[in-house]
Design brief:
Number of strands: 0
Strand content: under 5%
Number of helices: 6
Number of domains: 2
Distance between the termini: 85 Å
Radius of gyration: 33 Å
């Protein structure tokens, strides 16, 4: 049963057959399934895997294009984090020192007299 479906899909996937030839092959596979599949595999089986690979490549390319269009051209996560972190330390250009400077400024908070 499965080979008859594969042959049927291959007949429709084939670009070298005209519509009349496709209809004739389909009728042959429906009327005499075992003989139709056997004859099709002998006559056109060598190109079947090539058409399957080509179909998979087209599907993969369409999926990649869809994903790229859906994602858009927004900046990546690293660029967003760099924007949120602010500019690097002006004297050394080191991002770590920005955090240290901010931590130092947080530590030098004047506490009320009752808490100190």
């Amino acid at each position: 049963m499965l080979p008859s479906f594969q042959v049927t899909f291959d007949i429709f996937r084939s670009s070298d057959l005209s519509g009349v030839a496709e209809a004739a092959w389909i009728l042959f596979v429906i009327i005499a399934p075992y003989l139709g599949v056997f004859v099709d595999l002998i006559a056109r089986g060598s190109k079947m895997s090539g058409r399957q690979v080509q179909g998979m490549r087209q599907q993969e390319a369409a999926a990649r294009e869809y994903i790229q269009n859906a994602a858009g051209s927004s900046p990546g996560v690293a660029e967003e984090l760099a924007k949120l972190a602010g500019p690097p330390n002006a004297t050394t250009g080191n991002w770590f020192e920005v955090g240290v400077d901010r931590a130092d400024s947080c530590l030098s908070v004047d506490l009320p007299q009752g808490l100190a």
